Amino acid sequence: MVRFKNRWILVEFIPIVHGDSQLGKQSTSSPPLDGKTIWAALKQSVLTNFGDTGWGAVGLSLTVKYFSPTTNLCIIRVARDQHKIAWGALTLLTSVEGEKCIPNVIHISGTIKHAQLAAIAHNREIIARYRALAKTSVFDDGYETFLENSSREIDALQD
Amino acid sequence: MFFDLNVPITKKISANTSKKGKGTGNEALVSYSPAEIAAVEHRIDLQVHLGYTILSFCQTINKRVDPKVHVNVLNPLVALLRKRPGIVYLKRLNIILDQDSEKGFGLINANVTFFNSYDLLSLCPTTHNTFNQACLTHSLPSNLTAHIISLPSTLPRLPFHLKHTLIRTAIKNGAVFEINYVGSLGAEQEPTLVDANAAESGPAAKRNWWAATRELIRVCKGKGLILSGGCVVECDLRAPRDISNIISILGLAQDATHEASTKTPKSLILRAETRKTYRAVFSEPTVVLPEDSQIRSSVPGPVEQMEIDPDSSQVSVSKRPHEDSEPLNVPRQSAAAQPSKKKKKKPNKSDKSSS
């Protein structure tokens, strides 16, 4: 049985504004990042760093499955045999749509289940960081609904 | 536990040329403005977020070191930074060697007190002779060992051929070779390095980096390598596992890349502490007295009878019913007098975070 194996990469894009990283702050970039723009930027990075052969190896199986503009969290699916090239190109990515950012790979897994769990845990952490900075009451802010919605979206991901 | 042993700090010292300011007491001239401190803190926040726990600030000096002129700019900086639990700050001095430094560049015994204010010493050779010196003489264990050798990997052509025997000797002596990942992004390098023609920035630098680093990995065969940053601007920082992946694309086995970011730097830092000891002796040796010194030689099995741990007050005795207690008193006294000869005071790791 030749099963098609994948790797699910969980990335966080840390935006850079005026040379300062915006850790823990809401992203205020005017053209909001999108799954499609990230895919285009990643394709460009593979082409410049690994050439046409690199894109040929990775391109068919590379898809951006989920992206959340609030937490800058992205889930990318690649085939297992070429995931190193895709991971390398992701690390060497410096900007998306002209906006500089730092790609921080949080988790890599072979099944979607663990990627979902890691994504939900990461969301929780991010919201905790926002809350610590904002210092408002826990029940007032809209983060609870955001957490629920995002968890639902993440769980709805299919292979 | 991930290490970033190259956080470059450039600090221009105000040109205060009063005659009275000569000597190593010039640290008072180095002052950091609150904006600079905030920038460094911000960068450390980002690195902690990415997963680094041990950071080493790096000051770069060109050509030669003169303690009368050069100042340890990192001491005041580390004193001013906020204490973070679980994060360790270290200080490192990087010396760029070129043709003028072939005769000597200040790494001599007279300047030991200046070098002792740094935790790590490293060299960046740019010519064949300085590379020879760095690998052979300066990696031997002593008070002035430069444990890190950092090759200029973004230059258009590596100035010297990496000879296998030299590198093997250096690694055997305990030195490590450093890979700075800032070159893989073609990003901005430390200005002192660029001025000294030891590094370049831009897309051409990227190509040179890939070639030179691949060669270094091939010659080192995966041992004695450390991965470090060298990024000047924040947007070039990357998480440690991402960098390990880039190096594994270059051909290093995956476990070796993981070692290069965790185990090798850890043992390097511990080894660098031995600069303050005699000939890199690390452990506390136990004193084993030979059987015929002050003891009746009729007793067989002297070793287990005489083995005394200097720290413990009890003497381990083998069970011989016809022994009397007299021989036990003598070795205890003479053993207590001796252990101070080779004992090294082991600085506690917790000292570092408060330094």
TrEMBL record, chain A:
Its EC number is 3.1.26.5. It is found in: Nucleus. Signal peptide: none annotated. It comes from the Eukaryota. Keywords: Nucleus, tRNA processing. GO terms for cellular component: multimeric ribonuclease P complex; nucleolus; ribonuclease MRP complex. GO terms for biological process: tRNA 5'-leader removal. One of its GO terms (molecular function) is ribonuclease P activity. It catalyses: Endonucleolytic cleavage of RNA, removing 5'-extranucleotides from tRNA precursor. Its main location: nucleus. Belongs to the eukaryotic/archaeal RNase P protein component 2 family. Component of ribonuclease P, a protein complex that generates mature tRNA molecules by cleaving their 5'-ends. This is Ribonuclease P/MRP protein subunit POP5. It comes from Crepidotus variabilis.
TrEMBL record, chain B:
Residues 291-355 are annotated as: Disordered. The keyword tRNA processing applies. Signal peptide: none annotated. One of its GO terms (cellular component) is nucleolar ribonuclease P complex. InterPro entries: Pol/histidinol_Pase-like, RNase_P_p30. It is found in: Nucleus. One of its GO terms (molecular function) is RNA binding. The keyword Ribonucleoprotein does not apply. One of its GO terms (biological process) is tRNA processing. Keywords: tRNA processing. Its main location: nucleus. Belongs to the eukaryotic/archaeal RNase P protein component 3 family. This is RNase P subunit p30-domain-containing protein. It comes from Crepidotus variabilis. The lineage of its organism: Eukaryota, Fungi, Dikarya, Basidiomycota, Agaricomycotina.
